[in-house]
Amino acid sequence: MVSNNWNDKKAADIVEKSGNSANDQDLALRVYSSRLIGADHNLVLHGGGNTSCKLTVKDIFGKPVEVIHIKGSGIDLEQIDAASMPAVKLEPLRQLRQLDSLSDADMVNIMRQNMLDSTGPNPSVEILLHAYLPHKFIDHTHATAMLVLADLPDPQAAVKEIYGDKIAIVPFAKPGFALARTAAEIYEKNPQVEGLLLLNHGHFAFGDTARQSYDRLIEQTNMAESWIAKHMSDQAKPVAISTDNSSTANILPMLRGILGNRNAEFTGNRDQPMPVMDWRNNDLVMQFLARNDIANLARRGLATPDYVIRTKNYPLFISRKMQIEGRAAIERAVDAYITDYRAYFDRNAPRFDDEKILLQPSPNFAWIEDIGLVGFGADARAATITADLAEQNIEVMIKGEACGGYQPVGEHDLFDMEYWSLEQAKLGKAKPPKLTGNIVMITGGGGAIGMATARSFMARGANIFIVDLEEKALARALEELGPNHGGIAMDITRKGAAEEAVNACISRFGGLDILVSNAGAAWGGAVVELDEAVFRKSFELNFFSHYAFSKAATTVFAKQGRGGQILFNVSKQAVNPGKNFGAYGMPKATTFFLLRQLALELGSSGIRVNGINADRIRSGLLDDAFIAERSKARGIDEETYMAGNLLKREVEARHVGDAFVALALSERTTAHLITVDGGNIEAALR
Fold this sequence. Notes:
Low-confidence stretches: none
Largest sheet: 7 strands, mixed
CATH architecture of the largest domain: 3-Layer(aba) Sandwich
Shape: globular
Number of strands: 18
Radius of gyration: 29 Å
Distance between the termini: 70 Å
Number of helices: 26
Helix content: 40-55%
Structural class: alpha/beta
CATH class of the largest domain: Alpha Beta
């Protein structure tokens, strides 16, 4: 059931802070209830749905004018504010009802002509439907329960049983002028109704106040939930599903590489990034994939065409048999999907007067038997959006089939939405940052250099996977980086740690593109006096962990078949030993040789191997106490000590991070080590 989260005290506080103007108070409550709706993913997901309110304001001449504030196109209700709800003059919109037809271009032009603030976002494409209904507050959602009703073979009977005469049914039409006029006519024949069910689309509720409209939305949704629950209780109890996730680490990178290859062929860009993945294997998904009608449902379509711009029309279905047969079988499945999508385009594009340009024909999500649901995207956020929508679609399918059948909108209407310019505009056309789509693993990622490196890669669009020894350091890192990144806390020197970390990265993002092998620590003392155990411990961290992570990363790169990168944080100690630092410098020198050896052996596979020699960076290796000690021993202040280089300026962790990014972007550079030390001739390479 959906919770009613309206809080009278909070609403009163919002009204009080909004000022004395009734308009300001109504708009503030409109924003408040919109955020309540957006925060509940049972109601809307990722920019879906829209809300509005009608107010009378004064124009620049002081004359009263009626306006509608409506959610801007593509704005997420959970984050909406007043500025994201542009005000549009109502009367010109109402006059449009006199027309027999209205083009999308004319509709958008008229909306923008009548905006009170011309700098605001484009109003929702549903604005005319909101405008033609008389209510002050209107809420539109794609609630799971309402989509179940909207996709039934006999929705009229279900709606009558659940709501009596409180909800009217509107036949499917693409959002815009025709749908708005039809919905208004149906409402005007049934003015007592408190909501509308738009077949194969969604749900509208309305009222005289923000509270009334919101309450009706929740009540109507929960009435549908209760009705569905009765039908679901008659279904067979779910059986236990045993999942073997060991194959996930093999299948996801393999599929990622295949998709990357096909997308590169389509764009003509051989360096086209592979998609980032979002993998789901919860009980809902796994029970669904265990059904015996799964292959049929895979071709049934989407619960609402609003999602097609994110998900495409169907999933890629990978059976258990295909997984056993291996890469060639999965390639055939992907190629069959692409062929089918091209045929879908060829069947539908000629229906339009304007030329339609084929979108990337590869799938946007997959159903993989025994593994789960996987969403694909240009980055982690896009993959998550796709996976969320696809997961909701599964729930609608399950409940719809239990309640009489799942019959969503057909191919023609899906195509109309997918290739509708107003929908495509929601995706944005801005050029993405250079490293968008790249998955970067950073060991020692919670430390100063690790986090600086993470920030540098994230700024270029990469998704980051942090590996760190300390749980607290990992938590701090992920809190800063945000929800589109991941990580794992572990001792990277223990046996099997590298494979575990890489598999965790695959589970989070589907694969790996760049390994930044950064973790390290220094043990001091004269070589001849050091305990052998200390030497061995230093080699485990400062050499063998780099070696182990390189091997694990290379395994993933091979499965993807698209090359990859390994970047080492070596050290100036590798070429310029420091007194009493042999236990640190010697494994670092070995890591330097590892870099060159790997570059030599992996270059033919498209794997580049490079590194950084840094010196005198404030980090775990060079903390405040150590800086103070070294400065005092040399008879200089700390600032002078830290700037002890040719440039006479301190080198910071961010400079190391930027250098790692520079190497990552140097497409024809491998076996290279660059210094980031402000100039240290003694540590310069020959």
